[in-house]
Amino acid sequence: MDIELKTLASRLLAHRVVSRADPLARRALLDEIFRNELDRRLAEVGLRLVENPYAEHIAVALLPQMTEPVFGAGDTWINNNLGLPRDGVALLVILWALIILPKRERQIARVEAGHENQEDMFGAQKTLETGDAVSSGVSEDALYADFGKSLGGRTRFNANLGRLVNLGFVVRRNRVLHEGPMLDLMIDYSQLAPRIIDGALGEVLAHRQAMALSDSDTPSEEKS
How far apart are CA 53 and CA 112, in angstroms? Predict the structure, then answer.
């Protein structure tokens, strides 16, 4: 078991993320003894395993008590522990809200539907659906049209978007932004989701969705 633990820990540090489908990752998630030893070894160097059943990858992050020794005291680390400026953090939160929130709603709905129709006693152990089956992309052009000017204009928008791509939060495909391996891991859904849904950004996103529905319901001759 020792070599498997060293291999998984080293890969998490070297590659930043490991797929849940990987045999060692699956062992860490299903084998309690293996997981406890992995947690112990990571904790010895100030780290913890980051995973959730809705994400396609696992990763490592600092233990809460290591945040200040590593990033500094006070507010110095809050917006800059990944080298992101404030408008970069704002763009990250918007992308998370547009990609992860609707994805989670679809995942939870499918889990609940599965429980209603579940007949086999081991159904609860089945892997949750992730990836393109439940996650949809966001048009880069539409995102800029809605939020670009508030985020510093085209130059700042492109620069921050490039940073988020490099950090693994999003993936660019033909000017459509898709979920990257870090997006659903490094932001705490339980804390951020209520703030977005109940806050000002929730109102903006709801208005944006209502406008999109209105446009789709308008006859083509009226649009022209």
Answer: 14
